[in-house]
Amino acid sequence: MNKKIETTDYKIGSVLSEIIRPKIPIIFLLIVLCFAFFLLGFLTFFTAIFFIVIFTVVLLAMSSDDRKALEFYKNQEESKFKDISEGLNKLKTIIEAIKEPTILINENDVILIFNQSADKTFFSSIARDSVLNSENEIPTGLRIQTIIRSTLLLETLNLYKNSQKNSIEKIEIILPGEIDRSYEVDISRVPNFSKDEFNYLLMFRETTEVKKILTLRSEFIANASHELKTPISVIKGIAETLEKYGDEDKEASKDFLKKLIDQSNRAQLLIEDLLSLNQAEMRQHILPENEVNLMKVLDNVFDGLNELAKKNKIKLSKELEKKEYLIHGDENDIRIAFVNLIENAVKYNNTGQSVNIKIFENDFKIIFEVKDDGPGIHEDHISRLTERFYRVNSDIRNTGTGLGLSIVKNIVSRHKAQLEIESKLGVGSSFSIIFNKI
Ligand code: ADP
Fold first, then answer.
1. What is the pLDDT of residue 8?
2. What's the 335 CA to ligand 1 centre distance in angstroms?
3. Fewer CB near the terminus (10 Å): N or C of the chain?
4. Which ligand 1 atom minimizes the distance to the CA of 375?
5. How many Cα atoms occupy the beta-carbon half-sphere of 407 within 13 Å?
């Protein structure tokens, strides 16, 4: 999880040259003096050589002090290096223990340490092969911007480095991807043990879900109030009319009362569908894990829907082997999806006579299919059917809310299944959910 940390290297060669360099003028002066004396006749050639040798011995004796100094310097560097490694190891243990993705970078944005959570969150989403070396380690010199591509993060880091602030800097970044993910990032300064510089600790807290819930909540309130406005103002209008003129015309009053009931039912339906959609959206990220037998779910809803079919003069039939069709799922969600698809096939079938439900399987999938011989849907509408509140306007009997298929889509995607819609005008429609087998 960490990579080699560069420390200040002590170089014996350079230290020795530091010791000898100041003595060069003395050595030079003595050699010149010895030869000057030799030339002037004060010394013989051998005496001059003798003095030079003596001087070298003295120099060596003097160097023993320097050697001690060098030894001391070396020991000091070694213990400093030990301190750095110990410090970094401690830091690494602390960073590793942090639950949130955490990364330590240096002054040049080079990654020094990162924990398992950061590895899972950021390093697995990048093309590892292009960044990691053969031992699956991050290569030396890998910079944070290669892993986290956020201009805001880089700009804030630069400002923070220049500001010399000691408090924690908090920012919120959004990382684009299949799903945009948002993170709160805490940036703080950590002393660099080896140099007179700082390292920087980046702690990430994912806020994607919280943000999603907040958005869904405000969308829900906006949708609910918008959609309920119509039935409620109609109800209010009718009630006021009845209050004023109800006694005068009994027949008209009956009509008004019927409208009142219709609109109340519509408002109730809207509230139920909105709540259902909200529930489905809120649970989107929770993978359902229970074992569900699709045959049992269908059996439970079939009789009730058959009553509706009879009322609409539609023959409702099912075609499946008597066996268990097992998937990992949420039984209640699947029931809601089945009811929505079957109810649609029955209620919009104003031209045909039958709706057939099938459950069948292949090696990997279990397919739930509802097929009707109703009016069919024009291809222009098909891709938009699962949008919230989308209704096919030309449909005379369409008294729904336009939320049914949106609810189904959410449930289907929560189950990592697929929704397939095929339809031909004048021929009929087929809606299938393709589940993964256990
Ligand atoms: P609602 O809740 O109003 O029924 P849905 O989201 O379930 O809305 O359906 C959206 C639109 O798709 C409906 O307005 C309807 O016109 C059309 N539709 C859905 N199922 C069928 C079907 N089996 N046959 C024809 N039209 C359908």
1. 41
2. 18
3. C
4. 25
5. 25
In the chain, the domains with their CATH numbers are: 12-76 (no CATH), 98-206 (3.30.450.20), 208-282 (1.10.287.130), 287-438 (3.30.565.10)
CA of 390 to the centre of ligand 1 (A): 8
Contacts of 3 (CB under 8 A, 6+ apart): 111, 112, 113, 137, 138, 139, 140, 142
Ligand 1 atom nearest to CA at 406: 6
**Residue in 227, 271, 344, 378 to alter for ligand 1 test, most ligand atoms within 8 A of Cβ:** 344
Residue 290 DSSP class: E
Residues with CB under 6 Å of ligand 1 are 340, 344-345, 348, 372, 374-375, 377, 385, 390-392, 395, 398, 400-406, 429
In sequence order, the β-bridge partners of residue 171 are 185
pLDDT tier, 295 (very low <50, low <70, confident <90, very high otherwise): very high
Helix, coil or strand: residue 396: coil
Of 302, 288, 432, nearest in space to 360 by CA: 432
Q: How far is the CA of 275 from the centre of ligand 1 (A)?
A: 19
Confidence (pLDDT) at 335 = 96
Q: Which strands make up the sheet holding 354-361, listed edge to edge?
A: 315-319, 354-361, 365-372, 428-436, 418-424
Q: Which amino acid type is present at position 99? A: K
Distances (CA, A) of 319 to 189, 298, 366, 368, 374: 67, 11, 14, 10, 19
Q: Which of 385, 394, 427, 431 to mutate to test the pocket of ligand 1 (most atoms within 8 A of CB)?
A: 385
Report d(CA 400, CA 394) in Å as an integer: 13
Global confidence as pTM: 0.61
Contacts of 61 (CB under 8 A, 6+ apart): none
CA atoms in the 13 A half-sphere facing the CB of 367: 16
CB 240: neighbour CB atoms within 10 A?
A: 10
Question: Worst-scoring range by mean pLDDT, 60-64, 98-102, 161-165, 327-331?
Answer: 60-64
CA 208 / ligand 1 centre spacing (Å):
32
Mean pLDDT of 8-31: 65
Which DSSP state fits 120? I
Helix, strand, coil share (%) of the chain residues, nearest 5: 55, 20, 30
Atom of ligand 1 nearest to the CA of 381: 12
